[in-house]
Specification:
By secondary structure, this protein is α/β, with parallel strands linked by helices. It has three domains: 4-55, Orthogonal Bundle (434 Repressor (Amino-terminal Domain)); 66-228, Carbamoyl-phosphate synthase small subunit, N-terminal domain (Glucose Oxidase, domain 1, 3-Layer(bba) Sandwich); 238-454, Rossmann fold (3-Layer(aba) Sandwich), CATH 3.40.50.880. It is 27% helix and 26% strand. It is built from 14 helices and 20 strands. Strands 9-13-12-14-15-20-19-18-16-17 form a ten-stranded mixed β-sheet, with helices on both faces. Strands 2-3-7-6-5-4-8 form a seven-stranded mixed beta barrel. A hairpin with a 3-residue loop joins strand 10 and strand 11 (259-262). Helix 2 (14-21) packs across helix 3, helix 3 runs antiparallel to helix 7 (192-202) and helix 12 (321-337) packs across helix 13 (347-355). The relative contact order is 0.10. Keywords: Amino-acid biosynthesis, Arginine biosynthesis, ATP-binding, Glutamine amidotransferase, Ligase, Nucleotide-binding, Pyrimidine biosynthesis.
Length: 461
Protein backbone atom coordinates (compact mmCIF):
# COMPACT_ATOMS: atom_id res chain seq x y z
CA UNK A 1 0.00 0.00 0.00
CA UNK A 2 1.39 3.41 -0.98
CA UNK A 3 1.67 6.03 1.78
CA UNK A 4 -0.07 9.39 1.57
CA UNK A 5 3.32 11.04 1.03
CA UNK A 6 4.07 8.70 -1.90
CA UNK A 7 0.72 9.50 -3.52
CA UNK A 8 1.15 13.26 -3.05
CA UNK A 9 4.63 13.04 -4.60
CA UNK A 10 3.21 11.24 -7.64
CA UNK A 11 0.62 14.01 -7.97
CA UNK A 12 3.35 16.65 -8.00
CA UNK A 13 3.31 17.69 -4.36
CA UNK A 14 0.71 18.90 -1.86
CA UNK A 15 -0.37 22.05 -3.73
CA UNK A 16 -0.59 20.27 -7.09
CA UNK A 17 -2.56 17.45 -5.48
CA UNK A 18 -4.99 19.92 -3.91
CA UNK A 19 -5.57 21.48 -7.33
CA UNK A 20 -6.13 18.17 -9.12
CA UNK A 21 -8.45 16.86 -6.40
CA UNK A 22 -10.26 20.22 -6.03
CA UNK A 23 -9.68 20.55 -2.29
CA UNK A 24 -7.90 23.07 -0.11
CA UNK A 25 -4.35 22.62 1.15
CA UNK A 26 -5.83 22.32 4.66
CA UNK A 27 -7.56 19.10 3.57
CA UNK A 28 -4.25 17.75 2.30
CA UNK A 29 -2.63 18.61 5.63
CA UNK A 30 -5.35 16.64 7.44
CA UNK A 31 -4.79 13.67 5.10
CA UNK A 32 -1.13 13.68 6.05
CA UNK A 33 -2.05 13.88 9.73
CA UNK A 34 -4.54 11.00 9.55
CA UNK A 35 -2.41 9.07 7.01
CA UNK A 36 -5.45 8.40 4.81
CA UNK A 37 -7.11 9.91 1.74
CA UNK A 38 -10.94 9.71 1.50
CA UNK A 39 -12.14 7.07 -0.94
CA UNK A 40 -14.14 9.57 -2.99
CA UNK A 41 -10.83 10.94 -4.37
CA UNK A 42 -9.45 7.57 -5.45
CA UNK A 43 -10.80 7.62 -9.04
CA UNK A 44 -8.94 10.86 -9.78
CA UNK A 45 -5.79 9.56 -8.10
CA UNK A 46 -5.88 6.31 -10.07
CA UNK A 47 -6.37 8.16 -13.35
CA UNK A 48 -3.63 10.73 -12.65
CA UNK A 49 -0.96 8.40 -11.29
CA UNK A 50 -1.50 5.04 -13.00
CA UNK A 51 -1.66 3.35 -9.60
CA UNK A 52 -3.94 0.36 -9.02
CA UNK A 53 -6.57 -0.04 -6.32
CA UNK A 54 -4.19 -2.40 -4.53
CA UNK A 55 -1.79 0.55 -4.12
CA UNK A 56 -4.44 2.47 -2.15
CA UNK A 57 -5.75 -0.33 0.10
CA UNK A 58 -4.34 -3.05 2.25
CA UNK A 59 -5.72 -6.17 3.89
CA UNK A 60 -6.13 -5.66 7.64
CA UNK A 61 -3.53 -7.24 9.87
CA UNK A 62 -5.37 -6.96 13.18
CA UNK A 63 -8.63 -6.06 14.84
CA UNK A 64 -7.77 -2.35 14.91
CA UNK A 65 -6.79 -1.99 11.26
CA UNK A 66 -9.38 -0.44 8.93
CA UNK A 67 -9.72 -1.68 5.39
CA UNK A 68 -11.37 -0.22 2.30
CA UNK A 69 -11.01 -3.43 0.24
CA UNK A 70 -14.51 -4.40 -0.89
CA UNK A 71 -13.19 -7.56 -2.57
CA UNK A 72 -11.80 -8.98 0.66
CA UNK A 73 -13.02 -12.41 1.82
CA UNK A 74 -15.82 -12.64 4.35
CA UNK A 75 -13.43 -13.94 7.01
CA UNK A 76 -12.41 -11.56 9.80
CA UNK A 77 -8.76 -11.01 10.66
CA UNK A 78 -7.41 -12.85 13.69
CA UNK A 79 -9.16 -11.80 16.89
CA UNK A 80 -11.87 -9.67 15.24
CA UNK A 81 -15.46 -10.42 16.23
CA UNK A 82 -17.30 -7.42 14.72
CA UNK A 83 -17.09 -5.16 11.72
CA UNK A 84 -18.35 -1.83 10.43
CA UNK A 85 -19.07 -1.61 6.71
CA UNK A 86 -19.64 1.84 5.16
CA UNK A 87 -21.63 2.48 2.02
CA UNK A 88 -18.44 3.46 0.13
CA UNK A 89 -17.01 -0.02 0.72
CA UNK A 90 -14.78 0.84 3.67
CA UNK A 91 -14.52 -1.97 6.21
CA UNK A 92 -13.37 -1.54 9.82
CA UNK A 93 -12.73 -4.67 11.91
CA UNK A 94 -12.73 -4.80 15.70
CA UNK A 95 -14.01 -6.52 18.81
CA UNK A 96 -17.74 -6.80 19.41
CA UNK A 97 -19.18 -5.29 22.61
CA UNK A 98 -22.68 -5.22 24.02
CA UNK A 99 -25.41 -7.23 22.35
CA UNK A 100 -24.99 -9.49 19.35
CA UNK A 101 -26.74 -8.21 16.26
CA UNK A 102 -26.59 -6.11 13.11
CA UNK A 103 -27.72 -2.49 12.77
CA UNK A 104 -27.82 -0.15 9.77
CA UNK A 105 -27.80 3.60 10.34
CA UNK A 106 -26.09 6.89 9.62
CA UNK A 107 -22.57 6.98 11.10
CA UNK A 108 -21.81 10.16 13.01
CA UNK A 109 -19.15 11.22 15.51
CA UNK A 110 -19.42 12.88 18.91
CA UNK A 111 -16.46 14.78 20.39
CA UNK A 112 -17.64 15.03 24.03
CA UNK A 113 -15.24 13.74 26.69
CA UNK A 114 -18.03 12.87 29.14
CA UNK A 115 -21.70 11.93 29.12
CA UNK A 116 -21.66 8.85 26.90
CA UNK A 117 -24.74 7.43 28.64
CA UNK A 118 -26.67 10.67 28.08
CA UNK A 119 -25.58 10.54 24.44
CA UNK A 120 -26.67 6.94 23.91
CA UNK A 121 -30.07 7.62 25.49
CA UNK A 122 -30.73 10.98 23.82
CA UNK A 123 -33.76 10.39 21.53
CA UNK A 124 -32.17 12.71 18.95
CA UNK A 125 -29.70 9.90 18.10
CA UNK A 126 -32.42 7.63 16.71
CA UNK A 127 -31.31 6.26 13.34
CA UNK A 128 -27.60 6.77 14.10
CA UNK A 129 -24.54 4.79 15.15
CA UNK A 130 -22.16 6.93 17.19
CA UNK A 131 -18.41 7.04 16.72
CA UNK A 132 -17.01 8.37 20.01
CA UNK A 133 -13.80 10.34 19.50
CA UNK A 134 -12.90 10.17 23.20
CA UNK A 135 -11.21 6.80 23.71
CA UNK A 136 -12.26 5.95 27.28
CA UNK A 137 -15.92 5.02 26.97
CA UNK A 138 -17.35 2.97 29.82
CA UNK A 139 -14.99 4.21 32.52
CA UNK A 140 -17.77 5.64 34.71
CA UNK A 141 -20.28 2.85 34.12
CA UNK A 142 -24.00 3.62 33.87
CA UNK A 143 -26.83 4.48 36.26
CA UNK A 144 -30.57 5.14 36.16
CA UNK A 145 -30.21 8.88 36.86
CA UNK A 146 -28.29 9.65 33.66
CA UNK A 147 -30.93 8.28 31.29
CA UNK A 148 -32.19 11.01 28.94
CA UNK A 149 -34.95 8.77 27.60
CA UNK A 150 -36.82 5.68 28.74
CA UNK A 151 -34.56 3.53 26.54
CA UNK A 152 -31.43 4.21 24.45
CA UNK A 153 -32.15 5.65 21.02
CA UNK A 154 -28.78 5.14 19.30
CA UNK A 155 -28.50 2.00 17.17
CA UNK A 156 -24.90 1.25 18.04
CA UNK A 157 -21.55 2.65 19.15
CA UNK A 158 -17.97 2.62 17.90
CA UNK A 159 -15.05 3.10 20.30
CA UNK A 160 -11.27 2.88 20.34
CA UNK A 161 -10.33 1.26 23.67
CA UNK A 162 -11.79 -1.84 25.27
CA UNK A 163 -14.51 -1.13 27.82
CA UNK A 164 -12.95 -1.13 31.29
CA UNK A 165 -14.47 -1.73 34.72
CA UNK A 166 -16.36 1.37 35.92
CA UNK A 167 -14.49 3.63 38.34
CA UNK A 168 -17.18 5.97 39.64
CA UNK A 169 -19.21 5.92 42.85
CA UNK A 170 -22.47 6.56 40.96
CA UNK A 171 -22.08 3.51 38.71
CA UNK A 172 -24.71 0.81 39.18
CA UNK A 173 -24.18 -1.17 35.96
CA UNK A 174 -21.25 -1.97 33.66
CA UNK A 175 -21.58 -0.44 30.19
CA UNK A 176 -21.29 -3.91 28.64
CA UNK A 177 -24.29 -5.15 30.60
CA UNK A 178 -26.19 -1.93 29.90
CA UNK A 179 -25.74 -2.44 26.16
CA UNK A 180 -26.79 -6.08 26.37
CA UNK A 181 -29.93 -5.24 28.34
CA UNK A 182 -30.96 -2.71 25.73
CA UNK A 183 -29.97 -4.87 22.75
CA UNK A 184 -27.36 -2.42 21.44
CA UNK A 185 -24.34 -3.78 19.52
CA UNK A 186 -21.01 -2.03 19.48
CA UNK A 187 -17.46 -2.40 18.23
CA UNK A 188 -14.17 -1.54 19.95
CA UNK A 189 -10.62 -1.51 18.66
CA UNK A 190 -11.49 0.74 15.73
CA UNK A 191 -9.23 3.58 14.62
CA UNK A 192 -11.85 6.18 15.53
CA UNK A 193 -9.60 9.04 14.44
CA UNK A 194 -9.40 7.66 10.90
CA UNK A 195 -13.15 7.11 10.87
CA UNK A 196 -13.75 10.64 12.14
CA UNK A 197 -11.48 12.01 9.41
CA UNK A 198 -13.49 10.03 6.85
CA UNK A 199 -16.76 11.58 8.12
CA UNK A 200 -15.21 15.04 8.36
CA UNK A 201 -13.92 15.00 4.80
CA UNK A 202 -16.67 13.02 3.08
CA UNK A 203 -19.78 13.64 5.15
CA UNK A 204 -21.75 11.23 7.33
CA UNK A 205 -22.03 7.86 5.52
CA UNK A 206 -24.58 5.12 5.94
CA UNK A 207 -23.11 1.99 7.46
CA UNK A 208 -23.78 -1.40 9.01
CA UNK A 209 -22.38 -2.51 12.35
CA UNK A 210 -22.33 -6.31 12.64
CA UNK A 211 -21.53 -8.33 15.76
CA UNK A 212 -22.79 -11.84 14.86
CA UNK A 213 -23.18 -14.46 17.57
CA UNK A 214 -21.76 -17.14 15.27
CA UNK A 215 -18.76 -15.04 14.18
CA UNK A 216 -19.66 -15.37 10.49
CA UNK A 217 -19.63 -12.35 8.16
CA UNK A 218 -21.00 -11.71 4.69
CA UNK A 219 -19.30 -8.42 3.93
CA UNK A 220 -20.86 -8.17 0.46
CA UNK A 221 -24.35 -8.51 1.95
CA UNK A 222 -23.53 -5.93 4.64
CA UNK A 223 -22.28 -3.52 1.99
CA UNK A 224 -25.47 -4.00 -0.01
CA UNK A 225 -27.51 -3.30 3.13
CA UNK A 226 -25.56 -0.09 3.81
CA UNK A 227 -26.06 1.11 0.23
CA UNK A 228 -29.77 0.28 0.29
CA UNK A 229 -30.54 2.20 3.49
CA UNK A 230 -32.28 5.46 2.47
CA UNK A 231 -30.53 7.76 4.94
CA UNK A 232 -31.96 10.39 7.29
CA UNK A 233 -33.03 12.91 4.66
CA UNK A 234 -36.79 12.67 4.29
CA UNK A 235 -37.07 10.40 7.35
CA UNK A 236 -39.56 11.23 10.13
CA UNK A 237 -38.22 9.61 13.30
CA UNK A 238 -40.05 11.76 15.86
CA UNK A 239 -43.02 9.38 15.74
CA UNK A 240 -40.71 6.52 16.76
CA UNK A 241 -39.44 8.18 19.95
CA UNK A 242 -42.33 10.38 21.10
CA UNK A 243 -44.55 9.65 24.08
CA UNK A 244 -47.60 7.55 23.24
CA UNK A 245 -49.87 9.58 25.53
CA UNK A 246 -49.81 12.78 27.52
CA UNK A 247 -48.31 12.97 31.02
CA UNK A 248 -47.34 15.48 33.70
CA UNK A 249 -43.73 16.29 34.64
CA UNK A 250 -42.71 17.85 37.98
CA UNK A 251 -39.14 16.58 38.57
CA UNK A 252 -36.51 19.33 38.86
CA UNK A 253 -32.75 19.33 38.26
CA UNK A 254 -30.20 17.18 40.08
CA UNK A 255 -28.16 18.58 42.94
CA UNK A 256 -25.16 17.18 44.79
CA UNK A 257 -26.11 14.92 47.67
CA UNK A 258 -29.85 15.29 47.04
CA UNK A 259 -30.48 13.90 43.60
CA UNK A 260 -33.46 15.18 41.63
CA UNK A 261 -35.92 17.57 43.24
CA UNK A 262 -39.68 17.87 43.13
CA UNK A 263 -41.56 20.96 42.02
CA UNK A 264 -43.66 22.62 44.75
CA UNK A 265 -45.16 25.90 43.54
CA UNK A 266 -45.24 26.27 39.73
CA UNK A 267 -46.06 29.70 38.35
CA UNK A 268 -46.68 28.94 34.67
CA UNK A 269 -48.44 26.20 32.74
CA UNK A 270 -46.43 24.90 29.80
CA UNK A 271 -47.28 22.30 27.18
CA UNK A 272 -44.16 20.48 25.92
CA UNK A 273 -44.47 18.82 22.50
CA UNK A 274 -42.38 15.66 22.63
CA UNK A 275 -40.52 15.17 19.34
CA UNK A 276 -37.92 13.18 21.33
CA UNK A 277 -37.53 15.27 24.46
CA UNK A 278 -34.52 14.83 26.74
CA UNK A 279 -35.56 14.45 30.36
CA UNK A 280 -33.19 17.16 31.58
CA UNK A 281 -34.93 19.73 29.38
CA UNK A 282 -38.19 18.93 31.16
CA UNK A 283 -36.37 19.21 34.50
CA UNK A 284 -35.05 22.65 33.58
CA UNK A 285 -38.53 23.81 32.62
CA UNK A 286 -39.88 22.53 35.94
CA UNK A 287 -36.97 24.15 37.80
CA UNK A 288 -37.86 27.49 36.18
CA UNK A 289 -41.37 27.26 37.64
CA UNK A 290 -43.25 25.61 34.80
CA UNK A 291 -45.95 23.01 35.41
CA UNK A 292 -45.25 20.82 32.39
CA UNK A 293 -47.78 18.77 30.45
CA UNK A 294 -46.10 16.63 27.80
CA UNK A 295 -48.04 15.86 24.61
CA UNK A 296 -47.07 13.50 21.75
CA UNK A 297 -45.37 14.84 18.61
CA UNK A 298 -48.59 14.47 16.59
CA UNK A 299 -50.65 16.73 18.89
CA UNK A 300 -52.77 19.21 16.92
CA UNK A 301 -53.11 22.91 17.65
CA UNK A 302 -56.59 22.23 19.03
CA UNK A 303 -55.25 19.59 21.43
CA UNK A 304 -52.42 21.88 22.55
CA UNK A 305 -54.62 24.93 23.12
CA UNK A 306 -57.21 22.83 24.95
CA UNK A 307 -54.69 22.66 27.81
CA UNK A 308 -54.85 26.49 28.09
CA UNK A 309 -51.06 26.83 28.35
CA UNK A 310 -49.18 30.02 29.21
CA UNK A 311 -46.48 28.82 26.82
CA UNK A 312 -45.60 25.96 24.48
CA UNK A 313 -42.23 24.23 24.34
CA UNK A 314 -41.01 22.43 21.19
CA UNK A 315 -38.52 19.71 22.08
CA UNK A 316 -35.45 18.25 20.46
CA UNK A 317 -35.74 15.07 18.40
CA UNK A 318 -34.32 12.98 15.55
CA UNK A 319 -34.80 12.86 11.78
CA UNK A 320 -35.41 15.35 9.01
CA UNK A 321 -37.37 18.44 10.11
CA UNK A 322 -38.91 18.68 6.64
CA UNK A 323 -40.53 15.26 7.17
CA UNK A 324 -41.73 15.95 10.71
CA UNK A 325 -42.98 19.37 9.58
CA UNK A 326 -45.81 17.74 7.60
CA UNK A 327 -47.85 17.39 10.78
CA UNK A 328 -45.89 19.57 13.23
CA UNK A 329 -45.91 22.86 11.30
CA UNK A 330 -49.73 23.21 11.11
CA UNK A 331 -49.91 22.64 14.87
CA UNK A 332 -47.18 25.21 15.56
CA UNK A 333 -48.79 27.75 13.25
CA UNK A 334 -52.07 27.30 15.14
CA UNK A 335 -50.27 28.12 18.39
CA UNK A 336 -48.60 31.16 16.79
CA UNK A 337 -51.98 32.42 15.61
CA UNK A 338 -53.31 32.08 19.14
CA UNK A 339 -50.39 34.28 20.29
CA UNK A 340 -49.19 31.77 22.88
CA UNK A 341 -45.42 32.15 23.55
CA UNK A 342 -43.21 29.43 22.05
CA UNK A 343 -39.71 28.23 22.93
CA UNK A 344 -37.97 25.57 20.81
CA UNK A 345 -34.76 23.56 21.12
CA UNK A 346 -32.89 21.64 18.37
CA UNK A 347 -35.55 19.94 16.18
CA UNK A 348 -38.06 22.26 17.87
CA UNK A 349 -35.95 25.18 16.64
CA UNK A 350 -35.97 23.86 13.08
CA UNK A 351 -39.73 23.21 13.16
CA UNK A 352 -40.44 26.69 14.50
CA UNK A 353 -38.33 28.15 11.69
CA UNK A 354 -40.29 26.17 9.09
CA UNK A 355 -43.58 27.21 10.68
CA UNK A 356 -42.47 30.83 10.31
CA UNK A 357 -41.66 30.30 6.62
CA UNK A 358 -37.95 29.44 6.62
CA UNK A 359 -36.18 26.38 5.18
CA UNK A 360 -33.86 23.75 6.65
CA UNK A 361 -31.02 21.74 5.13
CA UNK A 362 -28.79 18.78 6.00
CA UNK A 363 -25.33 19.55 7.30
CA UNK A 364 -22.48 17.62 5.72
CA UNK A 365 -21.23 16.20 9.01
CA UNK A 366 -23.42 17.74 11.72
CA UNK A 367 -22.57 19.25 15.09
CA UNK A 368 -22.23 16.74 17.91
CA UNK A 369 -20.19 17.41 21.01
CA UNK A 370 -19.95 19.43 24.21
CA UNK A 371 -17.49 22.15 23.22
CA UNK A 372 -19.35 24.13 20.56
CA UNK A 373 -18.92 27.93 20.85
CA UNK A 374 -22.05 29.97 20.10
CA UNK A 375 -22.50 33.73 20.26
CA UNK A 376 -25.71 35.30 21.53
CA UNK A 377 -26.05 38.30 19.24
CA UNK A 378 -28.51 39.98 21.61
CA UNK A 379 -25.89 40.22 24.37
CA UNK A 380 -22.60 39.61 22.58
CA UNK A 381 -21.73 36.84 25.01
CA UNK A 382 -20.17 33.55 23.90
CA UNK A 383 -21.53 30.29 25.29
CA UNK A 384 -19.84 26.90 25.29
CA UNK A 385 -22.67 24.61 24.27
CA UNK A 386 -23.65 20.99 23.85
CA UNK A 387 -25.01 20.13 20.42
CA UNK A 388 -26.44 17.18 18.54
CA UNK A 389 -27.96 17.90 15.16
CA UNK A 390 -27.50 16.92 11.52
CA UNK A 391 -29.84 19.54 10.05
CA UNK A 392 -29.83 23.33 10.33
CA UNK A 393 -31.97 26.38 9.64
CA UNK A 394 -31.12 28.32 6.47
CA UNK A 395 -30.68 31.83 7.87
CA UNK A 396 -30.98 33.34 4.39
CA UNK A 397 -34.51 31.99 4.10
CA UNK A 398 -35.83 33.67 7.25
CA UNK A 399 -38.76 35.96 6.43
CA UNK A 400 -39.24 39.54 7.57
CA UNK A 401 -39.98 39.76 11.27
CA UNK A 402 -37.75 36.79 12.14
CA UNK A 403 -34.25 37.64 13.32
CA UNK A 404 -31.06 35.67 13.91
CA UNK A 405 -30.17 35.66 17.61
CA UNK A 406 -27.35 33.09 17.84
CA UNK A 407 -24.60 31.92 15.48
CA UNK A 408 -22.04 29.13 15.58
CA UNK A 409 -18.48 30.35 15.94
CA UNK A 410 -17.29 27.12 14.30
CA UNK A 411 -18.93 27.50 10.89
CA UNK A 412 -21.27 30.51 11.10
CA UNK A 413 -24.42 28.38 10.84
CA UNK A 414 -27.63 29.47 12.50
CA UNK A 415 -28.00 28.65 16.20
CA UNK A 416 -31.03 30.71 17.20
CA UNK A 417 -33.94 32.81 15.95
CA UNK A 418 -36.63 35.05 17.41
CA UNK A 419 -39.95 36.37 16.15
CA UNK A 420 -40.76 39.07 18.73
CA UNK A 421 -44.17 39.92 17.27
CA UNK A 422 -45.11 36.25 17.49
CA UNK A 423 -43.76 35.78 21.06
CA UNK A 424 -41.50 32.99 19.79
CA UNK A 425 -37.82 32.11 19.95
CA UNK A 426 -35.65 29.01 19.65
CA UNK A 427 -32.07 27.75 19.72
CA UNK A 428 -30.31 24.96 17.87
CA UNK A 429 -28.14 23.82 20.78
CA UNK A 430 -28.97 22.19 24.14
CA UNK A 431 -29.13 24.71 27.02
CA UNK A 432 -30.11 21.99 29.51
CA UNK A 433 -26.69 20.33 29.18
CA UNK A 434 -23.71 21.54 31.22
CA UNK A 435 -20.57 22.04 29.15
CA UNK A 436 -20.32 25.70 30.24
CA UNK A 437 -21.54 24.46 32.75
CA UNK A 438 -24.47 26.88 33.04
CA UNK A 439 -23.79 29.31 30.17
CA UNK A 440 -27.17 28.72 28.52
CA UNK A 441 -29.57 28.17 31.41
CA UNK A 442 -30.78 31.78 31.06
CA UNK A 443 -32.88 30.70 28.07
CA UNK A 444 -35.40 28.93 30.30
CA UNK A 445 -35.82 32.11 32.32
CA UNK A 446 -36.07 34.11 29.11
CA UNK A 447 -39.01 31.86 28.19
CA UNK A 448 -40.64 32.54 31.58
CA UNK A 449 -40.11 36.28 31.06
CA UNK A 450 -41.77 36.05 27.65
CA UNK A 451 -44.80 34.32 29.20
CA UNK A 452 -44.97 37.03 31.89
CA UNK A 453 -44.84 39.74 29.25
CA UNK A 454 -47.58 38.10 27.18
CA UNK A 455 -49.75 38.05 30.30
CA UNK A 456 -49.07 41.70 31.06
CA UNK A 457 -46.93 40.92 34.11
CA UNK A 458 -43.71 42.67 35.01
CA UNK A 459 -40.98 40.03 34.36
CA UNK A 460 -38.69 41.73 36.92
CA UNK A 461 -41.35 41.62 39.63
Amino acid sequence: MRSVEDILALLGGAEAAAGQLKVGTEAVRKWRQSRSIPAKHWPVILAATGLSLADLTSAPTGATAPSQDTTMPNLPPDGATACLVLDDGSVFWGLGIGAHGTQVAEICFNTAMTGYQETLTDPSYAGQIINFTFPHIGNVGTNVEDMEGATPAARGLIIKQDVTEPANYRATLHLQEFLKRHNIPGISGVDTRALTARIRDGGAPNGVLSFPADGRFDVDALLAQAKAWPGLEGMDLAKEVTARQSYQWDETVWSWGKGFGKQTAPTHKVVAIDFGAKRNILRCLADAGCAVTVLPATATAEEILREKPDGVFLSNGPGDPAATAVYAVPAIQGVLEAEVPIFGICLGHQLLARALGAQTYKLERGHRGANQPVQDLTTGKVEITSQNHGFAVDAKSLPAGVEVTHVSLFDGSNEGIAAPAKHAFSVQYHPEASPGPSDSHYLFHRFVGMMDKAQGKNPAA
